[in-house]
Amino acid sequence: MSSTSRKAATLTIAGVIVAAAFGYMMFGGLESNVVYFLTPAELVARGEGVYDRAVRLGGQVAPGSVQWDANALDLKFRVREGTHEVVVHSKGAPPQMFRDGMGVVVEGKYVRAANGQSVFESKNLMIKHSEEYRAPKDGQMPQEMYKSLIKGVSS
Fold first, then answer.
1. For residues 110 and 114, what is the distance between their CA atoms, to the nearest angstrom?
2. pTM of the full predicted structure?
3. Which among 121, 136, 130, 125 is positioned nearest to 148, based on CA atoms?
4. Is 59 exposed, middle or buried (CB count within 10 Å of its CB: 0-12, 13-18, 19+)?
5. CB neighbours of 155 closer than 8 A, spacing ≥ 6?
6. 62 close to 100: Cβ distance less than 8 angstroms
7. Which end of the chain lies in a sparser environment, N or C, as judged by fewer CB atoms within 10 Å?
């Protein structure tokens, strides 16, 4: 075998190994690292299979459901989508713009509470915000600008 054909064979084998390694990284390890994004209706519909698994839950903060204990940094609220709601519990301070009616995405696990009611234990709370920047007008309070972030309220 000539040195040229030996180099070509070596490069071909190396290319196949690199492609196989890349393919495994892209697809092989994906199943164990997928975090699902579910609405409250989808979460409840999954039944037993969703408990104690890392998932993302998205929806709106149900109006009047926010219970915030600033001393304990303890937050409870309900995430709603249509008529379905899920109770969410989070430790730590919420984002500054967190409000009733705001779109949120929470990462965590759906668990059974001691009282038998299921609760979504959140590790990470993210709010949906507008991607549009508007500078406040003279005399306008920032809270007035937040109205565009709450579904159903126009500014």
1. 13
2. 0.62
3. 130
4. buried
5. 144, 145, 147, 148
6. yes
7. N
